[in-house]
Amino acid sequence: MSETTERLGAHEVAAWLRRQPKFLQQFPDLALTLVVPRDDGPAASLASYQLEVLRDKNRELSKRLRELVAISQENERLAVRTHQLTLALMRQCDAASTVRALVATLAEDFNGDLVRVVLFAPIAGLDEDWLQVVASDDRRLQPFVDCLKDEEPLCGRLHPDKQSLLYGPRVDEVHSSALLPVEGVGLVAVGSRDPNRFYPGMGTLFLRMMGEAFAAAMKRFAD
Fold it and tell me: Where are the alpha helices (DSSP H) in 92-136?
């Protein structure tokens, strides 16, 4: 009976203290005598426990801040690269040079191991091993119907049908991709040997901006 009463009394004391958060400010000597159980050792004073909690929170906040700074720096680098790509595309004097400039930039500045381009129509003077010309109504493009319709970039491990068309005999080298549909022009794929380089859910803002810049550049040479 006394044990139950003591347990209920402790709960009541705890409830009262929750309603009086400044209680220990009035009785600092009491705070010095309280002890808090530790998971990994003997009991510690309340002040030491609170200090440790604050240090843990500070470490977590510092870690989060470092992550945000890293993300900000990466976004800044991508913004600069995207701007430089846009300028490079706009400097070209013909369609073939524009496509080559895109591929070179993606390979060099965006960590692409394999860059592949599928165009809906041939371009004079453009014959490269990374290029395929496939009419927009060709059955081989059936796996890309939704992607082309939505005009939304895809990131991650692509379906084998998509992989096969894009990368051909080197398909086994690619473990993640960024696929960029370009309105009225075709498809651009950046393949990586790193399975974590491109993943579903990663931001695609800069990919869309690159696609729009490429489409605008190519429209200058449309018949």
Answer: 95-109
The DSSP-derived string for 140-157 is GGGGGHHHHHHT--EEES
Q: Which amino acid is at 119?
A: L
Output helix, strand, coil percentages for the chain, rounded to the nearest 5: 60, 15, 30
- Rounded to two decimals, what is the model's pTM? 0.67
- The pLDDT, as a whole number, for residue 4 is 46
Correct CATH for 94-219 of 3.40.50.10090, 3.30.450.40, 3.30.1490.20, 3.40.50.720: 3.30.450.40
- What are 92's two structure tokens? 């070209």
Q: Which long-range contacts (CB under 8 A, 24 or more apart) does 173-176 make?
A: 173/113, 173/114, 174/113, 174/114
Over residues 112-128, the pLDDT tens digits come to 799 999 999 999 989 89
Q: Which helix (H) or strand (E) holds 200?
A: none
